[in-house]
Write a structure and sequence with these properties.
Elements (H helix, E strand, L loop, with lengths): L2 H11 L1 E5 L4 H13 L4 E5 L5 H7 L6 E5 L4 H10 L3 E3 L5 H10 L2 E3 L1 E2 L2 H9 L4 E4 L2 H13 L6 E2 L10 H6 L5 E3 L1 H4 L4 H12 L1
Parallel strand pairs: 1-2, 1-9, 2-3, 4-5, 6-7, 7-8
């Protein structure tokens, strides 16, 4: 998968389900619920026990599956070997970047400050994760985007159903949503409404 492929998918579905759980069984159940609701991109947090097994188990599903909270090259290697099509992280790591480049896997590091963004740009990255998005909110996102044109953004961390439209209206190609995603009583209806409304 190339960056352009993931961006194209984000512009269509706008949503990444961030799966973080205390067990692989719980993670699998969350992933299946998200898939049944129509979510097409899943991020399995590496902090989840046996997350590589969860990623492997989802390979036959009609979804794009990646790994999140990937902090080290060793974790990145394991995630890629399990079949992860992209890697998310809360920070930028040159070691992880080098590995993903050699394996041709999309790497999306987390950024929060202008220095973070500048470092990512210098490394040749164009798709970034604003994290934690809720810390600065929409105003911080707007201020950060203006001096760095030409980037694609996926805010993650504190995004809710009440704020998702604001992030998208202000230039995000998609958002990552974790616990708030599953709080919706009609998850399938919410996912379908989001996709249709944005189109």
């Amino acid at each position: 998968m190339q960056v352009e492929d993931l961006v194209r998918q984000m512009r269509r579905s706008h949503l990444i389900a961030v799966i973080r759980a205390l067990s692989s069984v719980e993670a699998q159940a969350k992933a299946e619920r998200a898939l049944a609701a129509g979510v097409e991109v899943l991020e399995i947090a590496w902090t989840t026990p046996n997350s590589d097994d969860v990623i492997r188990s989802l390979q036959q599903e009609a979804a794009i599956v990646g790994a999140g909270t990937v902090l080290t090259a060793e974790a990145a290697e394991r995630a890629i070997n399990a079949g992860a099509e992209f890697l998310f992280a809360p920070n930028f790591s040159r070691e992880v970047l080098a590995l993903t480049q050699s394996r041709q896997v999309v790497y999306i590091p987390g950024v929060l400050t202008p220095r973070d963004v500048a470092d990512a740009i210098a490394a040749g990255l164009t798709l970034l994760k604003l994290f934690p998005a809720a810390s600065g909110g929409i105003s911080h996102f707007k201020a950060l985007r203006e001096p760095f044109p030409g980037l694609e953004w996926i805010p993650t961390g504190g995004v809710t159903w009440d704020t998702i439209d604001q992030w998208l209206d202000h230039g995000a190609v998609g958002v990552g949503m974790g616990s708030a995603l599953f709080d919706h009583a009609d998850l399938a209806g919410a996912v379908n409404h989001l996709r249709n409304a944005r189109q």
